[in-house]
Amino acid sequence: MELRTLRYFVAVAEELHFGRAASRLHMSQPPLSRAIKQLETELGATLFDRSSAGVALTPVGAVLLDEARALLDRADRVRVRVAAAAGAATLTVGLLGDSTDVRVTRLADAYRRRHPRVEVRVRETDLTDPTCGLRAGLVDVALTRGPFDETGLTVHALRADPVGALLRADDPLARRDGLRLAELSDRRWFLFPEDTDPSWQSYWNGGEAREGPVVRAVQECRQAVLWNGTVGMTLLDHEPGEGLAVVPLIDMPLSRVVVAWNRGDTNPLLRSFVQIATTAFHTAREA
User: Structure pTM?
Assistant: First the structure.
């Protein structure tokens, strides 16, 4: 029984769909199906019930899934320890906009405790690339916000935060307890460059086509409002700075914090990062 075959099995068991599992593994479906059939023959048991309704784990398959996950996790830990001992263990993390977030600090501390000999390289990006260089192969994993085009990526949500309108402090609307997007329809907004991910652009423009100055970084957003009286959106709990105010937008969906990586990437350091990030942000939500 090869580790590679067990990884194939786990992918099918988690997706419960051979096509999606094959896509996740970056392979075609026929060899994946043959590998699972061979595994069933080797074990002398059926692992999946296949029907027109879909794919389901058998009781034997459920047992193997638990054992396979534990075995693969152990194998990954061996790889990490050997790579660290050889001085070759690195993980490049992309961060969007502001790496001073206390939750990022908590994550960094927890990851260092778990992997003290792993070198973590950080690439902080501006607001024009919500994948933080992931698609360009510049990072292994991105700690960012949605929405964006998720094609070819695995995206795991960590938390969701309310957003507000960023205004000058002397703007009459800044005295309000809450605003609706329609009340800002006649205002100029700060915008991201035209080649920015359309889903990302649409969210931060409130789902409408806007006019206004083009910005790329958090500070540019604030300066556009301060100098020009434009408006835009920001996280409700962000300190806007002197001369600015944030008013809750009551009809905007929450902004999701997510961790994203290339689909099919089995780097154990990446998997550990996702697990630790989930715990760190869950703890922050309860605090």
Answer: 0.70
